[in-house]
Amino acid sequence: MFDLSGQVALITGSSRGIGYAAARALGGQGAVVVINGRDPAALAQAATELRGEGITVHALPFDMSDIDQAVKAIDEVLKTVGRIDIFFANAGIQHRELLLSFPLREFERVIFANLTSQWALGRHIAQGMASHGYGRIVFTGSVTALLGRQGVTAYTAAKAALHGLVRQWAAELSESGITVNAIAPGYIKTELTKNLWDDAKFTAWLQDRVPQKRWGVPDDLASALVFMAARESGFVTGQILAVDGGMSSTM
Fold first, then answer.
1. Which is it for strands 57-61 and 86-89: parallel, antiparallel or unpaired?
2. Does position 225 have pLDDT exceeding 80, yes or no?
């Protein structure tokens, strides 16, 4: 089950962290992976490592926040790979500041990167999927869209809207053979959360709050993604799967 041989997967934000683990997992199941990041050097290093594991990789540097650049880059790689069967929209940014001092320009920047650009690029890829009658789209949501937390007002707003987009797209794209789902990570050790896992007080709070008493790691999300990307999950769409060690299920 979950054999992805012959399929092509595009993973944004995949030179490290969750995206890299996702590329490794999808490639390990036989998919050709197209990895993406803003730093060409970091992306090249990630591609070399994945190829060392026998995975077929194409490196595609672009910034998700530059929609025109992103669409152009994807259209260019399509000339080589032919189509995209799986799209994992994982790239995102964060700005941490309390609501009453949160700058409007930062709110707009985070919303654009985490919602608007996801919508624009996802729609572009969905058009190609629809023409082939098949596709798997998975967004990176967040447990903060389910449970509020201080200091992440823009990120929470973007991810909550993204969860709504998943349900809306499922309603619109199902007849085209496309499923649309999201993974809502809890607190995962990545570069985006480094300032938190460097904070001993926060880690102590997290271990007390999460039933599994630990931080998540990128590989914790990989198996959930493989399931959502596989043909076998064809009757699963419009769903948000929390991968958070039980955090959002307990008081």
1. unpaired
2. yes
The strand pair at 32-37 and 57-61 is best described as parallel
> Residue 36, Cβ neighbours under 10 Å: how many?
29
Residue corresponding to tokens 């940014």: 93
| pTM of this structure | 0.94
- % of the chain exceeding 90 in pLDDT: 93
Give the neighbor-by-neighbor strand order of the sheet with 57-61: 57-61, 32-37, 8-11, 86-89, 135-140, 178-185, 240-243
- Active site residue ranges: 155
- Kindly list the domain boundaries of the chain, sorted by start residue: 8-245
Class for the domain spanning 8-245? alpha beta
Q: pLDDT for 128-168, tens place per residue? A: 999 999 999 999 999 999 998 899 999 999 999 999 999 99
Strand ranges in the chain using DSSP code E only, listed in sequence order:
8-11, 32-37, 57-61, 86-89, 135-140, 178-185, 240-243
Q: Are 207 and 214 in contact (CB under 8 A)?
A: yes
Phi, psi of 180 (to 5 degrees): -135, 120
Per-residue pLDDT band at 25 (split at 50, 70, 90): very high
